[in-house]
Amino acid sequence: MLVTNGTIFMPSVLTFIGIPGLENIQSWIGIPFLVMYIIALMGNSLLLIIIKSEPSLHEPMYIFLAMLGATDIALSTSLVPKMLGIFWFHLPEIYFDVCLFQMWLIHTFQGIESGVLLAMALDRYIAICYPLKHTTIFTQQLVINIGVGVTLRPAILVIPCLLLIKCRLKLYRTKLISHTYCEHMALVKLATEDVYINKFYGLLGAFTVGGLDFILITLSYIRIFITVFHLPQKKARLKAFNTCIPHICIFFQFYLLAFISFFTHRSGSYIPSHIHIMLSNLYLLVPPFLNPFVYGVKTKHIRDKVVKMLCSKD
Question: Which residue range or ranges hold the G-protein coupled receptors family 1 profile domain (predicted)?
């Protein structure tokens, strides 16, 4: 690492500050984060076990739910261990290339989660608006293709972000990152060079994945609601709407936290940095924590299977 005129040439090691202003209580903040992480691991693992072991759940909706659970486990695991290392074990340092790899993991899994939510919305759209065509449209091959597509899309789109940082940005004002994980803009802001291209591509990638998915999911549910309200029988309307409730809950909490985190990040000095960083962490931790509860409570097939498993143990 070469230091010239107060700038650092491509630091080999970066140092996380954690949550600026809350360093004295970070060890306590880590406790609820750890609890959320453990519950996320247990809840999503249970979902995966139930869906795999129950043949009646080998349908597109539950396959996508299994993908969501696996993504939640991977996303929270790519974040929490290093965060707790900062909070509890005074291990704030990370190699520059490892930081880029963590960034790729976190942003990729965020994109996969968004893509899976879109796939689930399209599944509900076909199931409710074109029920007779659902089995012929959502074939096993289509589900596989969707799974590959929602995985490759963010994995590929994030790579240029890493290359733009690695190849374009050589001079940094500091090696201290005011964050708990390697987030794209948190790292880009450390550079002393022109970062317009980095910021532009970051926004483009965010819209291509999250923004586009949000629009398509919203349009899908507008069409679903129109179809449901035109059903002649009240019982049929309630049944159709109830199948959408878990996904609607997850959709709102995922994108609500995403938008709050996005806007606080771009509010600059108007929002204290510790609030932004706390919101960023909650945005990544709350969905994996809540998703198993939402589907466990609202989905009858899964709820019945959990009850059956608990009763068999007694």
Answer: 43-295
Instruction: Give the range with max mean pLDDT: 190-194, 262-266, 273-277.
Output: 190-194
The class of domain 2-313 in CATH terms is mainly alpha
Query: What amino acid occupies position 92?
Result: P
**Each residue's pLDDT tens digit, 47-104:** 999 999 888 888 999 999 999 999 999 999 999 999 999 999 999 999 999 999 999 9
Half-sphere exposure (Cβ direction) of 131: Cα atoms closer than 13 Å: 7
The upper half-sphere exposure of residue 228, i.e. CA atoms within 13 Å in the direction of its Cβ, equals 21
Please provide the size of the chain in residues: 314
pLDDT score of 5 more than 80:
no
Instruction: Return the structure tokens found at 79.
Output: 């974040």
- As a three-state string, the secondary structure of the chain is CEEECCEEECCCEEEECCCCCCHHHHHHHHHHHHHHHHHHHHHHHHHHHHHHHCHHHCCHHHHHHHHHHHHHHHHHHHHHHHHHHHHHCCCCEEEHHHHHHHHHHHHHHHHHHHHHHHHHHHHHHHHHHCHHHHHHHCCHHHHHHHHHHHHHHHHHHHHHHHHHHHHHCCEECCCEECCCCCCHHHHHCCECCCCHHHHHHHHHHHHHHHHHHHHHHHHHHHHHHHHHHCCCCHHHHHHHHHHHHHHHHHHHHHHHHHHHHHHHHCCHHHCCHHHHHHHHHHHHHHHHHHHHHHHHHHCHHHHHHHHHHHHHHC
* Alpha carbon distance 63, 47 (integer Å): 11
Q: In terms of pLDDT, which residue wins out, 169 or 298? A: 169
Residues 126-177: tens digit of each pLDDT: 998 898 999 999 999 999 999 999 999 999 999 999 999 999 999 999 999 9
| Sequence ranges of the domains in the chain | 2-313
